[in-house]
């Protein structure tokens, strides 16, 4: 429990200012105060060096708060605060509080403003004295003005700034310095609690106007603002107001502890900003889109507030000249002079009954009929004479009009003309709709020179006209790339007449589409236009829409939509191919290109696959006709070959024949022919062939044998040859007949047939018929060889059709050139990939990789056009050494939406 210097008892909260300051890192930091509800609701009072805070349910004391000249601020646990200067003004001096009328309170400082409207319980705390405020009272630097429940207060300051306090609001008038010809004007005001709105005056335009709140400091540059401070926490809602002419200003909210730091800038009248205090940090920022009810309520607030705002002189509608007679301000009945602040200390004159202070009104007489006129909203100025239809004074002398201190909105009195003018374009009449009227009445008094006072009135009926609705631009983010989205465009659109507005027409964006649903909502349908977007990619589209109030008024705004991609785009693949048969070897070849059908990137991967079919080699039948007659047991005149048949006789003609055919077999195999394509048939002959006559009485005859080419075949051929023995006669006709018989079974049509005829040349028999069959029926190429230097070539020449028989003196002399060589496979010499007419890099046959599927080349291509509607012509060509070409072409479509953002 705490016993204060004035006897008050404080039970709840006790704080030592010195101790709190010593615990803080910065000794000049604010004093922590534990009760946020009490700080902004309390009555502040000074008790000696202590500060007392009292509320119906809670009380607190801050010991030593006033012990020196330093005034620390006070902050709640959440971070809302009051400055030391504001607290000092709220507490007042250390003196007993008194209640007085405004006329009874001494003003220590010059007046800085005047009360323009007061209703309910409205007070000012000045020098510790709580004083009731009334219409016309003045306020001064250091005053604390406060409204009670169901009360309201409007103050107009010397520079034209107008403040309006709703019920249960409190504000400190810290300072205001203003001179009309100065650019060093300044003002600092502290808003403590409640709903408080204001219209900035000249200081905001020529000097430095700052408004302090529990959470931030407002820097103002000429605008209308409404604030709402929650008494329980200090959280403050800031709202820019749309002025009657449709303009919207801007404010900057600064950090109270670091004025160089901007918390947030505001310039949109459709969105309010809520700052919620956060301990040890900048306030939490919440953006709140205003509802239609919010906007209508603010419109009423603005209309009331702007009744007290001085209107700048302007031109008549349809004219280039300003009014040619001075307009007498509504609060002065005499000629226009600069405002003298000292006049504000005088008691105010009652509204609607004020007369000039130097006029004594004589008794009133019956009023004449009221002067009536009409005006059209937003139409020309309507003028009414202030003089009655008759004049009871001396003829030719005009009466003098005494007008109220406050005239209706838009009404001015022109003394030189003795007339009133109503401007129906004033904001107060903009709410009138079609068929709606408002009656404007001015009551005044006519003073004639005979002393007669006549009450009079001027009346206008303002006929409403339709005001076009106002459509606000919208920006909506996070639209899904699939599925329809309702676009709520009407939330920030308004109609000052209160007419219902609807969407009348709209355009379509470049991608996606917009339609109207059964409830009148615009619906955005992305369709398939954005499916190529991947995660992290955004496309921005816009469309215009027009609203109508159904009374002929329309307005158009723009809606900007951001469509966000999901996942990773992939496209189906396509394969194009070309096939051909190479002319030189009848080899089948193919080219296929695998590529995406569409792309959202500038690059894509192509796969080229080249197929080379097998080369069909000619089928070959090679026949060895070897002479094994008795004469082949004679000695061989040539390169010694040894005893190859193991008959005990070396270097015989038969040995040379055996050695030569073994060597021939090896040569044929070395040419590279496949064993499947070549058969070798060995036909031994003597007096007969296939079978040949046996050379010994007890031996069986020797049959011809057919072998496949290859290592196994070569070995079998050699073994067969080494088993031959010499003996018997020599019959060439029998040998050739045996060859024809064998070819009849071997030649299936289309094969190439070759005969190697080896003998010592001493044969018999008619050969012409058999040779003709070999040549004509089988197209055989016959190479006849005389084995040994002494061989007789005469009959062999008749058999040979390759240019004549030749002597064989060495096993390696047999010519195999007549056999030719296997047909080679096609050889790739060049590969080209062309994208949109441009060769796509350096690729060649060396880049091909042999796989089980064929030759494969992965070819990345770049320079692709990737936006929807684009097409990319991609072609691939493969050139063979023979000059033949495979070529294929395909189209890769662009898929990326053209509205995609930030694509480099």
From TrEMBL:
<dbReference type="Pfam" id="PF17963">
    <property type="entry name" value="Big_9"/>
</dbReference>
<feature type="region of interest" description="Disordered">
    <location>
        <begin position="313"/>
        <end position="336"/>
    </location>
</feature>
<dbReference type="InterPro" id="IPR006860">
    <property type="entry name" value="FecR"/>
</dbReference>
<protein>
    <recommendedName>
        <fullName>VWFA domain-containing protein</fullName>
    </recommendedName>
</protein>
<dbReference type="InterPro" id="IPR002035">
    <property type="entry name" value="VWF_A"/>
</dbReference>
<dbReference type="Pfam" id="PF04773">
    <property type="entry name" value="FecR"/>
</dbReference>
<feature type="domain" description="VWFA">
    <location>
        <begin position="621"/>
        <end position="831"/>
    </location>
</feature>
<dbReference type="InterPro" id="IPR036465">
    <property type="entry name" value="vWFA_dom_sf"/>
</dbReference>
């Amino acid at each position: 429990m705490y016993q204060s210097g004035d006897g008050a008892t404080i039970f709840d909260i006790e704080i030592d200012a010195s101790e709190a300051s010593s615990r803080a890192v910065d000794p000049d930091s604010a004093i922590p105060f534990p009760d946020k509800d009490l700080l902004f609701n309390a009555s502040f009072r000074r008790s000696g060096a202590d500060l007392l805070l009292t509320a119906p349910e809670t009380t607190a004391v801050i010991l030593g708060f006033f012990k020196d000249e330093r005034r620390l601020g006070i902050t709640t646990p959440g971070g809302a605060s009051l400055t030391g200067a504001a607290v000092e003004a709220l507490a007042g001096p250390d003196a007993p509080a008194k209640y007085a009328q405004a006329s009874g309170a001494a003003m220590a400082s010059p007046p800085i403003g005047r009360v323009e409207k007061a209703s309910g319980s409205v007070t000012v705390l000045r020098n510790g004295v709580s004083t009731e405020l009334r219409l016309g009272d003045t306020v001064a630097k250091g005053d604390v003005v406060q409204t009670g429940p169901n009360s309201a207060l409007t103050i107009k300051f010397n520079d034209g700034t107008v403040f309006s306090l709703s019920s249960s609001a409190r504000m400190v008038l810290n300072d205001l310095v203003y001179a009309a010809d100065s650019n060093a004007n300044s003002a600092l005001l502290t808003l403590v609690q409640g709903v408080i709105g204001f219209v900035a005056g000249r200081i905001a335009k020529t000097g430095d106007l700052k408004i302090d709140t529990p959470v931030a400091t407002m820097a103002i540059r000429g605008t209308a603002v409404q604030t709402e401070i929650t008494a329980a926490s200090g959280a403050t809602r800031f709202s820019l107001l749309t002025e009657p002419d449709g303009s919207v200003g801007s404010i900057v909210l600064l950090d109270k502890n670091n004025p160089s730091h901007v918390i947030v800038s505001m310039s949109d009248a459709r969105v309010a900003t809520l700052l919620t205090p956060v301990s040890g940090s900048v306030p939490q920022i919440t953006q709140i889109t205003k509802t239609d009810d919010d906007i209508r309520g603010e419109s009423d607030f603005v209309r009331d507030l702007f009744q007290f705002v001085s209107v700048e002189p302007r031109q008549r509608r349809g004219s280039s000249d300003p009014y040619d007679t001075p307009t007498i301000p509504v609060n002065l009945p005499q000629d226009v002079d600069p405002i003298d602040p000292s006049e504000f200390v005088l008691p105010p004159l009652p509204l609607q009954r004020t007369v000039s202070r130097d006029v004594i009104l004589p008794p009133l007489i019956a009023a004449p009929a009221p002067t009536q006129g009409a005006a059209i909203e937003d139409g020309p100025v309507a003028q009414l004479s202030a003089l009655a239809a008759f004049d009871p004074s001396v003829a030719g002398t005009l009466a003098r009009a005494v007008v109220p201190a406050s005239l209706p909105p838009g009404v001015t009195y022109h003394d030189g003309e003795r007339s009133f003018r109503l401007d129906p374009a004033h904001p107060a009449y903009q709410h009138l709709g079609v068929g709606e009227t408002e009656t404007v009445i001015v009551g005044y008094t006519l003073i004639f020179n005979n002393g007669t006072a006549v009450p009079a009135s001027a009346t206008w009926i303002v006929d409403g006209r339709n005001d076009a609705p106002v459509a606000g631009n919208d920006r909506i983010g996070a639209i899904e790339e699939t599925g329809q989205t309702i676009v709520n465009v009407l939330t920030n659109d308004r109609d000052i007449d209160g007419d219902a507005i609807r969407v009348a027409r709209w355009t379509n964006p470049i991608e996606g589409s917009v339609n109207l649903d059964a409830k009148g909502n615009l619906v955005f349908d992305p369709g398939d236009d954005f499916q190529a977007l991947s995660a992290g990619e955004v496309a921005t589209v816009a469309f215009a829409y027009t609203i109508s109030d159904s009374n002929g008024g329309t307005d158009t705004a723009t809606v900007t939509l951001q469509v966000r991609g999901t996942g990773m785009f992939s496209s189906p693949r396509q394969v194009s191919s070309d096939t051909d048969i190479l002319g030189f070897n009848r080899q089948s070849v193919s080219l296929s290109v695998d590529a995406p059908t569409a792309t959202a990137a500038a690059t894509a991967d192509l796969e080229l696959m080249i197929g080379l079919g097998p080369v069909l080699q000619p089928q070959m039948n090679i026949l060895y006709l070897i002479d094994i007659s008795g004469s082949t047991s004679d000695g061989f005149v040539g390169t010694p070959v040894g005893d190859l048949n193991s008959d005990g006789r070396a270097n015989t003609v038969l040995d040379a024949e055996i050695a030569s055919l073994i060597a021939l077999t090896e040569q044929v195999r070395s040419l590279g022919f496949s064993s499947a394509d070549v058969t070798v048939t060995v036909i031994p002959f003597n007096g007969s062939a296939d079978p040949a006559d046996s050379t010994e009485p007890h031996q069986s005859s020797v049959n011809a044998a057919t072998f496949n080419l290859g290592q196994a075949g070569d070995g079998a051929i050699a073994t067969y040859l080494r088993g031959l023995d010499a003996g018997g006669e020599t019959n060439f006709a029998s040998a050739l007949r045996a060859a024809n018989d064998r070819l009849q079974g071997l030649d299936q049509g289309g094969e190439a047939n070759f005969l190697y005829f080896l003998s010592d040349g001493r044969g018999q028999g008619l050969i012409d018929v058999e040779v003709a069959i070999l040549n004509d029926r089988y197209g055989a190429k016959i190479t006849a060889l005389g084995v040994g230097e002494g061989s007789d070539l005469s009959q062999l020449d008749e058999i040979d059709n390759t240019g004549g028989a030749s002597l064989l003196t060495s096993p390696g002399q047999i010519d195999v050139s007549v056999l030719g060589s296997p047909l080679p496979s096609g050889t790739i010499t060049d590969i080209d990939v062309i994208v949109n007419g441009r060769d796509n890099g350096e690729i060649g046959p060396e880049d091909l990789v042999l796989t089980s599927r064929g030759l494969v080349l992965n070819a990345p291509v770049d320079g692709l056009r990737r936006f929807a509607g684009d097409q990319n012509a991609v072609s691939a060509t493969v050139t063979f050494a023979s000059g033949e070409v495979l070529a294929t072409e395909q189209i890769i479509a662009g898929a990326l939406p053209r509205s995609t953002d930030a694509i480099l």
